[in-house]
Amino acid sequence: MLYFCKTALLEEKYMSKRDAVVLASRTLALLLLVWTFSEFCSLPELLLSYIHYAHYEPATAFVDYMRHYHLALLTVHVAKIIGFSVLAFWLHDAGPGVAEMLLPSEADKDLIES
What is the pLDDT averaged over residues 54-82? Predict the structure, then answer.
């Protein structure tokens, strides 16, 4: 991708579809990585909250509820971190599946219109 070379800009006036797909997919991948790091930063708080309630014996319904609540939050955050990471790496590769998702083929456009 030669976007900053003057000779490349003179030869081609427009960006190719492949370059546009790569640029869009890598931008989305970067957004997902930032989102992953944001979720990762809140993980210690959730882990410490779960450990806090895990040390208590379930003497009351409140302690038992809070233990299960923080465990569910921790599980959801870990699943989101894993899912965002996998999706970001898939988008960064910009393979044929990503190109098909971001830029549908002409055959699919005909099916959508009819």
Answer: 90
Question: Which is more confident, 9 or 14?
Answer: 14
Quick one: which H or E segment has residue 12? none
Nearest CA-CA partner of 17 in 109, 104, 89: 104
CA distance 89 to 98: 11
DSSP character at residue 79: H
Asked whether 49 and 70 are in contact (CB, 8 A), the reply is: yes
User: 84 versus 1: which is more confidently predicted?
Assistant: 84
CA distances from 17 to 22, 26, 56, 92 (A): 9, 14, 58, 16
Record the pTM.
Answer: 0.72
